[in-house]
Amino acid sequence: MKKSLLSALMLTTVTLSALAAPYAASADEFDSKIADQDSKISSLQNQQTDAQSQISSLESDVADINTKAQDLLAQQSELQANSQDLQDQITTLQERIDKRSAMIQKQARQVQVRQNSTNVVDVVLNAESFSDAVGRIQAMTTIVKANNDLVEQQKADKEAVQQKQAENEQQLQQIQANQAELEQQKGNLISAQADLKVQQTTYAADQATAEDEKASLQTEQQAAVAEQQQVAAEQQAAANAQAAAEAAQQQASSESSTSVTTEAPATEVTTPSVTEPTTPSVTEPSTPEVSNDNTNTTETPVVETPAVETPVVETPAPTTPTPAPSTGASASRASITSIAQQYIGVPYVWGGKTPSGFDCSGFTSYVFAQVGMSIGGWTVPQESAGTVISVGAAQPGDLYFWGSQGGSYHVAIALGGGQYIHAPQPGESVTIGSTAYYAPSFAVNVLG
């Protein structure tokens, strides 16, 4: 019995030792996996940092383009003012020329009626004296010369002003071309910035996933370590039980030997019989002691398993996206024009896309977004928001464009009757304009 118990304890110890090895290996594997996740998270963080750096660089480029655009728009405003001033000068000169032309024609008619009035011979013959004749001739010559000089000067002035106006128009065209180029650059930068923000969001999502996986691995690792500690405790308990069993066995053997040695002389004196020493009384006293000792020593000690704290992974609360407005009845022409007119007076800000400040394309984009329609963030994509039509065919809610298709530099929302609403230029605000004063190049039917 004692040998069986000892054998069972040894078998249990060997079994627990065999089970402990895989758990130890498993804990080490978790350490390796967690280290891999840490490396992955660090790499993703570096990628996010790089993406943010690129975004910051692009934002700096956008700021530079904004500054350049403001300078060009200021030049354009100045040139437009100069052009208007030159046009006023041309109008004034034309009025003077018209008046003097009328006077010359009147003088010509008088000459035809009174032939002698322009006849130098008659003037000389009718003169009272030589000096009178000379004076009359000089007066006629002076009048004719003065008229001719005045007309020539007026013509020269008009040609000079017209030349300046032509140069001014060329400058305006150059500024418009620059604006179109700036719009293109603005679109490229917006697109690149959007791509980088998408990358940044992707990296953040990947990092969150990696961190979740790391937390899961840490939880599993802690569970494995706890189980490993439990197995180790059980091994220690089995070892203690085995040692106690061995000690009890040695004690029982020692007591049995002592009992046999003490009782042997008494048997030889009282009874000469040879068989009495084999009486079972020699072994009986030791039997209950062994049994009691085994019962006491094989009791397995209670081993407290340390509690494993499972890390709490905070899951961000799901956000409910705001539903976009319906593009059905709400996206009517009347609603678009009505919404657009609510922002009359909002100051012009190049690159502005909110009611705190609009540029031309930012204004149209914002208005259409209010009825659930995305038409693009700058002029060229907005050209593709519908069907290209003539300016005369535009209806309220359609878009007017200035510049060539694919290179437009200004956009407005048609109101009907030759009017439109737009964010004109720096120093001005959202206002209503007329195609008679500032004619668009083409239109786009957005609503069909």
TrEMBL record:
Keyword check for Signal, yes or no: yes
Task: Please give the coiled-coil regions recorded for this protein.
Answer: 27-96, 151-195
What ranges does the record list as Low complexity composition bias? 244-317
What residue stretches are annotated with the NlpC/P60 domain? 330-448
| Signal peptide span | 1-20
Please name the PROSITE patterns in this protein's record. NLPC_P60
Q: Where is this region: Disordered?
A: 244-330
Under the heading Pfam families, the entry gives: CC_PcsB, NLPC_P60
Keyword Signal set for record: yes
Keywords (A to Z) from UniProt: Coiled coil, Hydrolase, Protease, Signal, Thiol protease
Family matches, as InterPro entries: NLP_P60_dom (IPR000064), PcsB_CC (IPR057309), Peptidase_C40 (IPR051202)
The record ties this protein, via PANTHER family, to: MUREIN DD-ENDOPEPTIDASE MEPH-RELATED (PTHR47053)
Q: What is this protein called?
A: C40 family peptidase
Q: Tell me which species this is from.
A: Enterococcus alishanensis
